[in-house]
Amino acid sequence: MPEPTGRPGETIELTDVTKRYPGQAEPAVEAVSMVIPAGEVVVLVGPSGCGKTTTMKMINRLIEPTSGTITIGGTDVLTLDPDQHRRDIGYVIQQIGLFPHKRIEDNIGLMPKVLGWSRSRIRARVAELLELVGLPADYARRYPRELSGGQQQRVGVARALAADPSVMLMDEPFGATDPITRDHLQNEFLRLQREVRKTIVFVTHDFDEALKMGDRIAVLRPRSVIAQYDTPEAILAAPADDYVASFIGAGGQLKKLALLRLRDVELAPAPRAEGLPRIAVEATARDALDLMLGEGSDVVLVTDDFGDDATVIGSLDLRMVMGAAAGEAGNP
Amino acid sequence: MTAPIQARRPARAARGTGRPRWAGLLVRPALIVAGLLVLWLWTRGQRLDSIEARNVNGEVIGSQVLEHVELTLICTALTIAIAVPLGVAVSLSRSRVGRVVVLGLGNLGQAIPSVGLIVLLALVISIGVGTAVIALVAYAVLPVLRNTMVGIEGVDPVLTEAARGMGLSRLAVLFTVELPLAVPVILAGVRTALVLTVASAPLAALIDGGGLGEGLFTGLSLNRPVISVTFGVLVAALALFADWLGLLAEMFLRPKGM
Ligand SMILES: Nc1ncnc2c1ncn2[C@@H]1O[C@H](COP(=O)(O)OP(=O)(O)OP(=O)(O)O)[C@@H](O)[C@H]1O
Ligand SMILES: [Mg+2]
């Protein structure tokens, strides 16, 4: 993974923000207030047409709110020059929107070029970002139509990161990728985010993606009315109402386990027994449960790393997993 | 008569790598050469009287072709210089009124029969090349204007939004995204205008503007078919050639990656 160039995120605050499109009876977004803390990933989930994209575009002023205020780092965005303001915000649009007449390198390097970076610096940045999103370096010379939908989407993410913005707005950035690629991109993204700590607003339809990506999740009703805004763990533990519960769907307990990394669980000492199944500490409690069920063993050994020569650092049994689900080993 | 020219669709020749396309590119020059060859053989076979001989000879033809080409180039350059910025401005203003007014004027220039326009302007202004240029430009502005507007408005709004969203200024979006993507459509309009100009430029001779029209009208007024046929075929060949050049331009100037 390339070294992140770090501009840390800033807090975004929406106060009573309303957007009424001309000629429509109902506002698309009504009186939304929320604080998106600096350096966190906040995921907006909600049904199609509930105003997620509209809310996002008001933050970078592609859409001007009808009323209410939005501040970033304490500054009212309406007082800023819109172009300068947007340069500080990476925007991954829902429809990808790569420029078809520009090569991938020129798509990604466009803003750095506008900002006057040297050519060698742009080239290095493009290479770094392609590697980050898992595309071969020689794709730089291709045109967008020579890439698959999922590959284009990754270029879209790279392009948004190019000028090292402090805030990222990501509108269903991994929507067009298969589950395996999506999982890989999510993991890479989370790993990068742990280092760069940007403030990220992330839109998705997929509640499981929300659970995985979000430090906080805002479950939205139509008109972007917030049904619940909390950490994934808290939402799973106590959905505010039936609407939120319907988003969680079936298997809420399992989803809770999926949020819990073994490194955050207090492990029991490793027993001497031979031949027990092994699992890495990076895995989740859900993975551990899956392994127990699959191997027919109610104890698994936890190792410090993947692979056969990893060191055993403790063990986990079924009762501890159940305790974790009940929240005892809960939030670190 | 109002016969608004349809926004001409850009040539697709560059798309796909079919060899037939390239072969097709050679058909037109071959036709032109063949036509001119036939013309040459035919005039050689005629017994020319003194008036005919004075008009149908290399020197006269050469100078008139040159004048004609000059006139066409000047007119087309002016047409582009007027129509493209105007079309861009109207598209960007998103003003309905502006659109209607500008297209209306363009339609008017096109709708008045070109002979009428050229004679009318000669009466109002004066005879001469300048007046001919004004009339020809007025006549050819519409296709470029319309195609510029159609081209810019046809750019996927998702792309302009992406560009705006990254923080490009309105002008930067125009030059990095909208104009390059509109180039094929604009060029198709230019090609139409070019052919229109070549084909109408003979009218310039009516008001002393020079060009191949001189020979054409001499032949007609003196009832010498050899002369009018010769110059008529030359105009047609030149128009075909202009169209072919336009096609080449469309193929080579279209943005890559499309
Ligand atoms: N430019 C516009 N003019 C008028 N109405 C609009 C406009 N853009 C969006 N809307 C309306 O506002 C509402 C919210 O749209 P928005 O695009 O924000 O939804 P979304 O939550 O992003 O949906 P999706 O998940 O399908 O992308 C919708 O009812 C939509 O029809
Ligand atoms: Mg949307």
From TrEMBL, chain B:
Record-annotated membrane-spanning stretches: 21-42, 71-93, 114-142, 162-181, 227-249
Any Pfam family: BPD_transp_1
PROSITE patterns, A to Z: ABC_TM1
Residues annotated as domain ABC transmembrane type-1: 65-246
Keywords of the record: Membrane, Transmembrane, Transmembrane helix, Transport
InterPro entries reported for this sequence: ABC_transp_perm/SBD, MetI-like, MetI-like_sf
Gene3D superfamilies recorded: MetI-like
Membrane topology: Multi-pass membrane protein
Compartment annotation: Cell membrane; Membrane
PANTHER family: GLYCINE BETAINE/L-PROLINE TRANSPORT SYSTEM PERMEASE PROTEIN PROW, OSMOPROTECTANT IMPORT PERMEASE PROTEIN OSMW
Family according to the record: Belongs to the binding-protein-dependent transport system permease family.
Protein name (record): ABC transporter permease
Record lineage: Bacteria, Bacillati, Actinomycetota, Actinomycetes, Pseudonocardiales
